[in-house]
Amino acid sequence: MKNISLTLLLLSFFGTLSFAQKKPDVFKTLDTELEKARVALKTPGFAVAIVQKDKIVYSKGFGYKDVENQVPVTENTLFAIGSSSKAFTSAILGVLRKEEKIDFDARPGKYIPELRFAEPWMNEQIIIKDLMAHRTGLPRHDFSWFMFPSESKSELIKRIEFQEPFTGLRQQWYYNNWMFFLQGEIGARLTGNSWEQNVKELFFDKLGMTRSNFRIPEMEKDADKSFGYSVELDGKTTKMDYYNIAAMGPAGAINSSVSEMSNWLITWINGGKFKGEQIIPEDYVKEAMSAQMVVAAGTPSKEHPDVQFSNYGYGWFLASYRGHYRVEHGGNIDGFSASASFFPTDSLGIMILTNQNGSPLPNVVRNMIADRMLNLEPADWLGETVKRLEEAKEAQAKAKAAADSTANASLTKPSHILMDYTGTYEHPGYGKMEIDLKNDTLFVQTGLLGGFLEHKDYDTFNMYLIYQGEPNKDNAFPFQFVSNMTGDISGLKAPLEPALDPIEFKRTPKENELSVDDLKKYEGAYLLMGVQEVKIYIKEEKLYAFVPGQPEYELVNIGEHEFNLKVLEGFKVKFEEKDGEIMAVSFIQPNGTFRGERKKIE
């Protein structure tokens, strides 16, 4: 990519720009058309702003920010902007490069010394630019932060070492929120300020973005904020809780309004300047909105031969929209969707924020407005989208009917009783999940989300997340439990990253706390195979086993008369009781079971 000359392209961005000022009549029917789109797409509410050169020429809210109380959206209503935050994160590094504090060709480990990737080549070859352009070879690993959120940046950095790549460096573009978390942390290390402080001081304060913020409590106390909603294909609308993105903030934590985000777009349209002040270095602006990685072929379709190529810069997607160079980034986070876009050679910017989860509206409205503002023959973007949604609705109904007609109870049984599947399951690149048995059902709890297991086949169960207070029965994660050499459940495999084989979590059985009095009944000497004497004793209120010639082993109770050897996986001890007395012990290990009678005290 470095050998591609961008000279002609970049000269065109910031040369003398000619943009015919739109007459007021271009907006005459826009309100009606946008409200029509909102209704057709079943969107609770949204706001839109249009900027030309250095001015907001149109801004308006549609629908409701609070559906239950029918409170209208305004151009100042705060929404979560999700991944539209990413351009702010990368721009921090652009400012720091201008100050000669960072080298984009340096390894990330130069600025975060404790950072390690899963493979040696990644540690040696990945550079800052690769983080900014989604080209590290790592897949998303999104469930690692979404299901197991953390406020600890150090903990998140440690997880990256255990997240496997799926391809080589710069071989394939693949979206990755983790690499934007790292950019935010690099900026913080270099300035001594948090990512939030950097964004506020470098951009918000200078652009008059006084109400834009980063945290749910700040969002909640603002009088003009929107709630988020999910909307099913049949139109059913449900209020959603705000999602706390925690330490992953640099990937998508900003809350803002279209009126304040307009100043951000004006800055990019004008080569990094706002009201005469150079906010973002001009050379960085040019580089960030130039192709750094090919996303996909982006070939023109039969329906839209003039929409083509699909590349990525730094925090921005790039495309040719009907002969016009478009820079854009969307955003999706629980209950909200967004689109920030601008056309640099046309001095046009379009900002759309909506309170609909996974909404198609931002792209539809963006294209409808672009056609008007660029004097293009309007395409039927709304009609095409409505048609696709109707087709999806029909396909969903057919799939549900097919699933219902073939649904049968499993003809097989798990290899263990349900209690044997309980415990703590951990993967160092993800986190811990707890599985407990309640009323004959296995329940799962991750760092954030809960769920329950439904038996599917043998040791495979379907895990259904309880998301936003409701079980998501339309999507199941198959959990395949695995056993060790002694037949005990030792872990589970779950397909949490589509680009890789299932992620394997290691099981630690639940430890039962026994009193010293409870432990005393196991104390004594046992003669294994009639030859080897083993001593069981209490030390510091814990039970230990000692075999001559070996270290002492702490025993951890996992069930009635059953203990694991704390430091040896696949080894356990089981005591035998008769007439209320412990009579024998069996050491169960991968190479066999060794039984010993308890020696009588004379």
TrEMBL record:
Cross-referenced Gene3D superfamilies: 2.40.128.600, DD-peptidase/beta-lactamase superfamily (3.40.710.10)
Domain Peptidase S12 Pab87-related C-terminal: 412-506
Segment forming the signal sequence: 1-20
Keyword Hydrolase appears in the UniProt entry: yes
Statement: the UniProt record of this protein carries the keyword Hydrolase: yes
Pfam families noted in UniProt: Beta-lactamase, DUF3471
Keywords recorded for this protein, A-Z: Hydrolase, Signal
InterPro entries, per the entry: AmpC-like, Beta-lactam-related, Beta-lactam/transpept-like, Peptidase_S12_Pab87-rel_C
GO MF annotations, alphabetized: hydrolase activity
Protein name (Swiss-Prot/TrEMBL): Serine hydrolase
Species of the source: Algoriphagus namhaensis
